[in-house]
Amino acid sequence: MLLHSTKEAIKIGLSLTIAISLTFLLGWEKPWWSAITIIAMSANETYGHSIKLASDRLAGTMAGAFAAVVLVSFFAQERFLFLTTLILFAGLATFMSFNQRYGYTVRISFYVCALVCAMGAFDDISSINLIILRLQETFLGVIVYSLVFGLIWPDTTQGHFFALQNKILNCLEEKASQLSQKMSAEDVLKISDELQQVIPQIAKMKTILDLPLNGSHQLKHQLEKWRTITISSYEITLKLTEIADQLTNTQTDLTKRETDLAQITQQLTILKLAVKSDESQTVASPSAASGMS
Description:
Helix content is about 85%, strand content about 0%. By secondary structure, the chain is an all-alpha fold. It folds into two domains: about 5-150; about 155-280, Four Helix Bundle (Hemerythrin (Met), subunit A) (Up-down Bundle), CATH 1.20.120. The chain starts with a helix and ends with a helix. About 30% of the residues are buried. It is a multi-pass membrane protein. Pfam families: FUSC (PF04632).
């Protein structure tokens, strides 16, 4: 049985080999552009993240190509206006790079714009040919990556989400059990710190639900359900953190704490059953389909 990292390395190597070979076969120049696209897509946590990056990269490439055409067409003979516009574009890209949703797209658009302007030698025909080549290479990288990673040892966004969800629910269940027992102040502080570390994991779940969910049928068709579970996990984490903070207070109402922990345990049981039922459906679907055939 191969390790996950080994499988990923094989898929990346195969994708690069296919993309570069196709580039040479088609007679395209600059085969490293398709390779860079594949490397950028593979440096993501899930397949959904990669598809999101691919769409942003394509959008940025087209926007940068359009900006380059405008600059070369109108300011090729005006050095001051050309440099001023390019610097303003660079400033916009730097400012927007901190935007979580559009930052990558704007950065890529500036890179492509500067690249086309520099390599196109301010010539309309050369710039257009360079833009077409860039788009071809980018599309080729996206297509090859999608096919290889979608067909060979596919690692779906859905599977990653369920694994992360189970990890979080198990962690919350463990912390609820620990908080119901008598413990020292140091142990309580440790639990509080561990609960704080759960919050970024829940934020990661929310990010996954905002990604393209093609192939993740359970997530795509029950999106509101999983968003509700994510919100519930966050609320339970905050409640457990509040209980942990209250334990440092000697005047804590023990009856209320036990009641709250019992309710939290019940909520966690319901959430785990919901996740488990959907995982069972996901596993059962292929076998059912094969039985019908």
